């Protein structure tokens, strides 16, 4: 990045003769800039990768100041060392036509959704039962930080999940780089899949087109799709500045960034030998938004005096999930006691009203009973240029009055099945179907010939999407699956059909059906969704209530959203949630601590 930043500095100083910007040529890595800022020897870091969490924490401790990260250009398509876009390669013989972001995350992540066979990614015939062999870099170096490419994939795809344990790790050696080694392994392994740069392609491998979500178009990695911001694994370069204790930047930093993000600064990118890409209009708008309201940076992106979520009478609007009304009313009262003069207007008409309101700024934050759908996430990204920040604030409820419940596996009382594993559950419900009869579940006698009738919530409902996303690796439901709109309809079906094995709300259980226990891995027991198992994280079909914040946390009013979410995740806030109707369960102490740490790392808490 040194030549590009030096060119920006020369052009800026030519327009502002009184400015002085020094861009030394002696450093090669972003880590050197981090060390220089920590030592007080620099006030800007060039990041050709996303900063590591450890770096941000170290700088906060060393300087007492948060690091503001500003995107300044897109990465290159395939320039060596140019923060190039990543390709997902399969063997040339593999017929896979494309992967969505959720499928790709499931391929690389450890956990229940991780597909083991190519059939789970939609391949049929002889490919359906072939194993998936995943190749990649080491997830963590001896320094405790991941490689820059792994750090990018952690943020873009895995989002807090750990890498799968059977990852076939490649390293530099014998004159071959790690990325070239990954391609070589996939070229030699028909069942292989791995990531690398487009410059490392060989005739024996093929780059798979990618989509940002189910129902969204697939884009091959081309120079045009990367430059336009359409390709999922295009990358970004950044400048990092330690902000003041109040979150502001110096006047000089604001003026320099205003130039870089303007038309003249972005045109200089095309002249650089690394072939970085200019920011797209959406990306540039999002970058300018990170500076809005930061004292001297106000002129970078002027905004109206009143944010859209502030109503004419001064009330703060919150749009979202109707079943969170009682907890939010109680939290509003507690928040107002510590923030005199703050009033809230709760417009709670349902979870699906929240994403658009968050994107257009008409809600302070988004309280939701389910995650964004892939379509909602795509629309949000197109508008804002970044994904929203997701936080868990409570577990689902065991009270039948609540709309959000953990899920459960149900059978007819005549059915002798008492327990089932998550692996068996996936094999019953998700394509390709591998488990269809009672004998495959260990049943004997006449029940060994029981042909399973799977049913549950319709595939396009929130619960249907939840199971596919979190437990079936994105695979579609089997053709014999029967979907209903409500859990009550599912339970009536189970009560009437001895051959039914179905998924529905746990809090709707009644004597006409029976809950099947879920066997936990490694023989550590069976869980039926007790309160203790849900709060401790032992129950795999648990669900959550969420709050989404806009990202990055950098605009006027974000401190208010941060403070409110901080109250929700505090011990007093969790007690308020636990006491409120209709009985949602508070997070465990460990769960609270984990979400509080994520909130701080997101930029809240300054």
Helical/strand content category: alpha/beta
Instruction: Find the count of extended strands (DSSP E, 2+ residues).
Output: 23
Helix content: 25-40%
Please state roughly what percent of the residues sit in beta strands, choosing from under 5%, 5-15%, 15-25%, 25-35%, 35-45% or over 45%: 15-25%
Would you identify the regions where 5 or more consecutive residues have pLDDT less than 50?
Answer: 301-305
Q: Span between N and C termini?
A: 29 Å
Shape: globular
* CATH domain fold name of the largest domain: D-Maltodextrin-Binding Protein, domain 2
Radius of gyration: 26 Å
CATH superfamily of the largest domain: Periplasmic binding protein-like II
Query: Could you give a short account of the major beta sheet?
Result: 7 strands, mixed
**Average of the residue pLDDT scores:** 90
CATH architecture of the largest domain: 3-Layer(aba) Sandwich
Protein described:
The chain has 606 residues and is of the alpha/beta class. The chain has 4 domains: 2-80 and 235-300, Periplasmic binding protein-like II (D-Maltodextrin-Binding Protein, domain 2), CATH 3.40.190.10; 86-220, Periplasmic binding protein-like II (D-Maltodextrin-Binding Protein, domain 2, 3-Layer(aba) Sandwich); 316-401 and 543-601, D-Maltodextrin-Binding Protein, domain 2; 407-536, Periplasmic binding protein-like II (D-Maltodextrin-Binding Protein, domain 2, 3-Layer(aba) Sandwich), CATH 3.40.190.10. The chain is built from 20 helices and 23 strands. Strands 15, 16, 17, 18, 19, 20 and 21 form a 7-stranded mixed β-sheet that branches. A 5-stranded mixed β-sheet has the order 6-5-7-3-8, covered by helices on one side. The chain has a 4-stranded antiparallel β-sheet with strand order 13-22-14-23. It is globular. It starts with a helix and ends in a 5-residue tail after the last helix.
């Amino acid at each position: 990045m040194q030549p590009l930043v030096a060119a920006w500095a020369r052009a800026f100083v030519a327009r502002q003769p009184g400015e002085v910007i020094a861009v030394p040529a002696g450093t090669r890595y972003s880590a050197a800039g981090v060390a220089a800022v920590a030592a007080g020897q620099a006030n800007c870091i060039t990041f050709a990768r996303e900063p590591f969490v450890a770096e941000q924490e170290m700088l906060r401790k060393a300087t007492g100041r948060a690091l503001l990260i500003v995107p300044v250009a897109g990465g290159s398509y395939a320039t060596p060392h140019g923060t190039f876009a990543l390709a997902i390669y399969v063997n040339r013989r593999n017929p896979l036509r494309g992967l969505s972001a959720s499928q790709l995350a499931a391929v690389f992540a450890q956990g229940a959704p991780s597909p083991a066979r190519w059939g789970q990614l939609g391949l049929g015939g002889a490919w359906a039962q072939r194993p998936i062999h995943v190749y990649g870099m080491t997830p963590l170096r001896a320094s405790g930080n991941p490689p820059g490419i792994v750090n990018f994939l952690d943020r873009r795809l895995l989002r807090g999940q750990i890498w799968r344990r059977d990852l076939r790790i490649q390293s530099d050696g014998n004159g071959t780089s790690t990325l070239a080694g990954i391609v070589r392994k996939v070229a030699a392994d028909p069942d292989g899949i791995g990531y690398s740069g487009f410059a490392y392609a060989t005739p024996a491998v093929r780059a798979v087109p990618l989509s940002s979500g189910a129902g969204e178009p697939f884009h091959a990695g081309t120079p045009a799709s990367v430059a336009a911001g359409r390709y999922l694994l295009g990358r970004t370069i950044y400048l990092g500045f330690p902000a003041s204790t109040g979150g502001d930047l110096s006047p000089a930093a604001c003026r320099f960034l205003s130039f870089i993000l303007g038309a003249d600064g972005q045109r200089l990118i095309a002249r650089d030998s690394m072939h970085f890409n200019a920011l797209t209009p959406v990306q540039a708008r999002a970058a300018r938004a990170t500076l809005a309201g930061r004292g001297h940076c106000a002129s970078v992106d002027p905004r109206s005096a009143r944010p859209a979520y502030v109503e004419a009478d001064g009330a703060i609007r919150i749009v979202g999930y109707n079943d969170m009304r009682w907890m939010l009313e109680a939290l509003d009262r507690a928040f107002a006691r510590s923030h005199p003069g703050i009033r809230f207007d709760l417009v709670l008409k349902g979870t699906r009203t929240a994403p658009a309101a968050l994107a257009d700024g008409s809600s302070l934050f988004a309280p939701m009973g389910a995650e964004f759908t892939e379509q909602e996430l795509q629309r949000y990204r197109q508008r804002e240029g970044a994904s929203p920040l997701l936080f868990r604030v409570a577990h689902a409820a065991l009270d039948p009055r609540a709309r959000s419940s953990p899920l459960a596996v149900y059978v007819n009382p005549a059915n002798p099945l008492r327990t089932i594993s998550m692996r068996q559950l996936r094999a019953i419900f998700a394509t390709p179907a591998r488990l269809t009869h009672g004998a495959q579940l260990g049943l004997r006698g006449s029940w060994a010939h029981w042909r399973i009738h799977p049913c549950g919530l319709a595939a396009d409902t929130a619960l249907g999407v939840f199971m596919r996303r979190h437990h079936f690796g994105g695979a579609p439901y089997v053709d014999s699956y029967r979907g209903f709109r409500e859990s009550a309809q599912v339970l009536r079906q189970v009560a009437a059909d001895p051959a039914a094995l179905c998924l529905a709300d746990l809090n709707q259980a009644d004597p006409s059906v029976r809950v099947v226990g879920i066997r936990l891995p490694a023989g550590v027991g069976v869980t039926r969704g007790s309160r203790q198992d849900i709060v401790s994280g032992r129950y795999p079909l648990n669900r959550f209530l969420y709050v989404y914040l806009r990202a990055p946390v950098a605009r006027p009013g974000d401190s208010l959203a941060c403070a409110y979410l901080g109250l929700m995740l505090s011990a007093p806030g969790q007690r308020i949630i636990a006491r409120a109707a209709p009985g949602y369960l508070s997070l465990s102490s460990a769960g609270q601590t984990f979400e509080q740490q994520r909130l701080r790392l997101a930029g809240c808490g300054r």
